[in-house]
Write a structure and sequence with these properties.
Blueprint (H helix, E strand, L loop, with lengths): L7 H4 L10 E8 L2 E8 L2 H7 L4 E7 L5 H12 L9 E5 L10 H6 L8 E4 L4 H4 L3 H12 L3 E9 L9 E5 L18 H4 L3 E14 L3 E5 L4 H21 L9
Parallel strand pairs: 4-5, 4-6, 6-8
Antiparallel strand pairs: 1-2, 2-3, 3-7, 7-8, 8-9
Helix pairs in contact: 3-8
Length: 248
């Protein structure tokens, strides 16, 4: 049965670790297990099923909230060298709890001249393609970098709400649900794109090919807690770079 997941660390299980163009390292920071997967060739990208880029998976199962926010910030900060203006995009639908991570993060972002937010919502609500909307907003705002936040799918229920994926390859909305969408990345927007996501559900295939998306009972608290930590880590990006470019 095919693994349905947005997480690069889960796709590694089906890929030989000696694959050329694929490198994986693991470290532990303040109780957070950080697995870094770097894909540098098209052959490796095809083998793992993810675009070329750097993927960080933060397993926070044994970490305290304040340490999670700190490690999140430390993971994102080196990926953004220019912080003249950052556009934060919250993907998802705030009317559907499991898909509301992006909008919940935006509610807590400290906006200003150097930090702006945009919630494109979903086509079913607005009638506007979210990727096209993000393109238009990027042309209008002209940011130095874009951070996109979205809910993800995991193959393992234990990763729900405890793992964070940060990557430089951008994000394809609803790809984990088997829907074909364009990828929001640097090629599309013309500036660096950092994607931050948290798995909020798993996919279960039952007889007669019926597909169910399974979420935990406390998904509202999962979204609330994860959104708060992501927002805290992003707010620190600008507050610690008041005098131009900094490299934490």
């Amino acid at each position: 049965m095919q693994t349905v997941t947005d997480l690069a660390c889960e796709l590694l299980r089906r890929t030989p670790h000696q694959t050329a163009g694929l490198k994986t390292t693991t470290t532990r920071q303040a109780g957070v297990l950080v697995q870094t997967t770097t894909i540098t060739t098209t052959a490796a990208a095809h083998a793992i099923g993810k675009p070329i880029g750097v993927y960080l998976n933060l397993d926070t199962t044994d970490a305290k909230p304040r340490h999670i926010a700190q490690v999140l910030h430390q993971a994102v900060a080196p990926l953004i060298t220019k912080r003249d203006k950052i556009l934060i995009v919250g993907l998802g639908n705030d009317k559907f709890v499991a898909d509301s991570l992006g909008p919940r993060v935006l509610e807590q972002i400290k906006t200003g001249a150097r930090m702006v937010t945009f919630q494109p919502c979903v086509f079913g609500v607005t009638g506007i393609d979210s990727v096209q909307a993000i393109q238009a907003m990027t042309r209008l705002v002209r940011p130095s970098a874009v951070i996109v936040i979205d809910s993800l799918v995991s193959a393992s229920p234990t990763r729900i709400g405890t793992n964070y994926q940060i990557c430089t390859s951008g994000i394809t909305p609803e790809s984990g649900l088997g829907r074909d969408r364009r990828t929001i990345n640097r090629r599309l927007l013309g500036v660096p794109v950092i994607a931050i996501g948290v798995p909020v559900c798993t996919v279960m295939t039952l007889p007669q090919n019926k597909i169910y998306h399974v979420v935990p009972k406390d998904i509202d608290m999962v979204i609330r807690d994860c959104a708060t930590l992501i927002a805290r880590s992003i707010n620190t990006l600008v507050s610690q770079s008041r005098y131009g470019v900094t490299r934490p």
